[in-house]
Task: structure prediction
Amino acid sequence: MKHLFFFTSPLRDKILSLFLVLAAIPALLLGWITLVLLDQAHRQDVLVIEHETLRAKEEEVTTFFSDLMGVLDVRLEALDAAEITPGIDQWQSRLAEALRAEHDEFVEVLFVSPEGKETARASRTPRGGPLLYVSDLPAFKTALSGMPYIGSVYYTATGPNVVMASPVRAGEEVVQVVIAEIDLSLLVRSLTAHRLGETGYIVLADNRGVYVGTESFGSVKPGEHIVALIAQLDETDRYESIFSTTAVAGAKRVLLAGWTLIVEWPLAEVDTIIDDIREQIIVVVAASMLGVVFVAFLFAARIVYPIRSLEAGARRIEQGDFESGVFISTGDELEELGKAFSAMTKGLKRLQELKNEFVFIAAHELRAPTTVIKGYISMILEGDAGKFSGTLREYLTEANKANEQLLQLVNDLLEIARSEAGKIQIQVVPLDIRESIDTIREGIKPLMQEKRLTLSYERPTHALIVQADAVRLKEVIMNFVTNAIKYNRERGTITISHETKDVGVVTHIADVGFGIPKSEQGKIFEKFYRTAAARESGLQGTGLGLFITKELIERMEGTVWFHSEEGKGSTFSFSLPKGNDTLSS
Ligand code: ADP
Result:
């Protein structure tokens, strides 16, 4: 069964493909869908966490501003009388000072009259100078209209600052405006101190999209515009960060007055878990694919192996081997098929035996009368029955030829039947092949003369010992030589030579006759095969000689081959095992 894994088998490949289509592709698809869904769920989870964080931080920022705004929301009726008297300017100065002192974030607090003139000023570091007109400031204008005001970030030596302003009311009337400069350092520090996981961070931008920070973050300096990043966050949640130049998962939240909080979480941390899960899924899918392929191989082997056995069995039958049946033990229909095949082999064997028996009996029965006819015709031709006319001689000669051919056929059939029934006895002994050829040379002289052929035998001077059956060897050489005579041209030559090689002693019988066309060379050792040229030439033959010769050579453990060129001649060669030099008597 092992060879099935290494050799090509179209059926196995089909079964594998089927398994792949039915099992592996769905597994891949499922794995892929799981990965995609997992990825989506994970992205969603990350966004949820980021938005939670942003919400919490929004509250912090909002509380920061609304607390300060609450402080700046001054109402005259709520103040103590002592604070307002004796002069209006004094209560403003005192209040400005009190407010500034109370909150570390206040860098400076101004009170401004509705006309836009500063009425009081309290600074962290007093700057002196006259009180100014600030009626052009948007902070003043907004607060005077009754609205609280939060400006944009600007930087001073202390860090990021922002201006807030609020109307001062007496009842419903705006009687003053309070403007405060707020130091954002504390707020920013508190925001940047917060971490999301190990590496996530929070960034604040003001209403113009300016980065609010106390120091540079990556390549972004405090006060630099990050509008593009804020816009990008509307499009995507995963991108290359400008703060850390790594891929991040980001989210933003727009706060009061158009300020924005941004959270960024490097993917290296965010995707650690999902990467592990992804790897596990890939490993599981790959393992199940391998499993499918392995099972498919086993399954294919289970199907293909018995079929291969049947195929091998059929080939053995084709080669004439009816002995070895097929053994399949799969416990299913294939096993039944194997049994049926073996039974069929037995049936075929029986048929073969019957055929051989028939051929043998028919040939045997035909040989006796044919031999008798041959004898009588010879006797008549030799004049034993008295004188007869020339025409009768002619007829009898033709009848004799036909009878000779019939006898040859009968003898060949008998030989084949014997061979197939395993009845040919081969007794291999060491013998000098030169002597076998010498005897044949004598016997074929008359035939050679008819066609005026010359035979040249390159006879070695020393004995050439081969392992062969003396009678069968003569038959073999005789067949090659008679063919070389028969299929030679008038006055042609026949050359017999030997070679000693590793395979043994090789004998070549070459003629210069009409040769065998390439297209027919593969068939001439087949039973009854005669080339078209041989059939059309009118030369007698059965097409069984070479078949029997090959069989005999192989039985003597030799091999046979030939080279032939149409119109130029053929060289038939056969090898026989070398014998030792001690000849049997
Ligand atoms: P047969 O000679 O009785 O026809 P063989 O089995 O001896 O049968 O030869 C088979 C065929 O091979 C011949 O009919 C002939 O076509 C071809 N053949 C055999 N020997 C030669 C040869 N020496 N030259 C050309 N053709 C040959």
